[in-house]
């Protein structure tokens, strides 16, 4: 995949690799959910997640850093990571594969976009949307026929960043996704949905 350049801010978005791992680790260590989740929440079933820890989660993601396809894309400004999007074939995400509230919609070998992280100092610049566009290009380059997301649909209400880590519905819709199913979960505190875009 070609790196995506923003000449004004010298932003580049590239697949996670051992070279960019340290920068990503510094971004995740800024605090919040990434510091303990390390973007492996969707890769583990509930029982395995309960038995995990931040250090185990970190090791798991680091172990995927040299995998092809990459487990996500890193937005870098110079040597500093300012953003992240986690994605991959849906079957890579064990929690999704066994989910009753986010079930497979059909037999299409869909990819999933599961997580966004944007550094506090880089927010308000549309970085999450750039990461989503890069995710679409990366999935298409790897032959994905379709891609899904699981955003929050705030319906006009302000949603805390911690609840919007899967993205917001309007961002996905602006990128061309269509809403295909509401997520019906009795424990949900905000409305969530499943969105999809055909790539092939």
The total beta strand count reads: 8
Number of domains: 1
Q: Helix- and strand-based class? A: alpha+beta
Q: How many helices does DSSP assign?
A: 7
Q: Name the overall outline.
A: globular
> Which strand-content bin applies to the residues?
15-25%
Q: Can you give the mean pLDDT?
A: 92
CATH class: Alpha Beta
Low-confidence stretches: 1-8
Reading side by side through the largest sheet, how are the strands ordered?
A: 1-2-3-4-5-6-8-7
H/E series, N to C? EEHHHHEEHEHEHEE
Largest beta-sheet details = 8 strands, mixed
Approximate helicity band: 25-40%
CATH homologous superfamily heading: Gcn5-related N-acetyltransferase (GNAT)
Second rung of CATH, namely the architecture: 3-Layer(aba) Sandwich
**Looking at CATH, which topology would you report?**
Aminopeptidase
Gyration radius, rounded: 16 Å
Alpha-carbon distance between the termini? 17 Å
């Amino acid at each position: 995949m070609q790196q995506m350049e923003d000449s004004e801010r010298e932003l580049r978005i590239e697949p996670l690799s051992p070279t960019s791992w340290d920068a990503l680790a510094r971004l995740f260590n800024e605090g919040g959910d990434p510091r303990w989740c390390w973007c492996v929440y969707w890769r583990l079933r509930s029982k395995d997640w309960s038995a995990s820890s931040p250090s185990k989660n970190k090791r798991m993601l680091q172990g995927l850093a040299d995998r092809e396809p990459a487990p996500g894309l890193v937005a870098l400004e110079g040597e500093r990571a300012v953003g992240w999007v986690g994605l991959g074939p849906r079957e890579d995400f064990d929690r999704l594969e066994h989910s009753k509230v986010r079930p497979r919609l059909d037999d299409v070998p869909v990819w999933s976009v599961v997580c966004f992280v944007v550094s506090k100092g880089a927010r308000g610049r549309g970085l999450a949307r750039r990461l989503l566009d890069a995710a679409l290009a990366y999935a298409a380059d790897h032959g994905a026929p379709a891609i899904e997301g699981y955003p929050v649909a705030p319906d006009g209400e302000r949603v805390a960043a911690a609840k919007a880590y899967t993205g917001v519905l309007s961002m996905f819709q602006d990128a061309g996704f269509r809403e295909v199913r509401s997520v019906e979960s009795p424990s949900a505190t905000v409305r969530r949905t499943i969105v999809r875009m055909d790539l092939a």
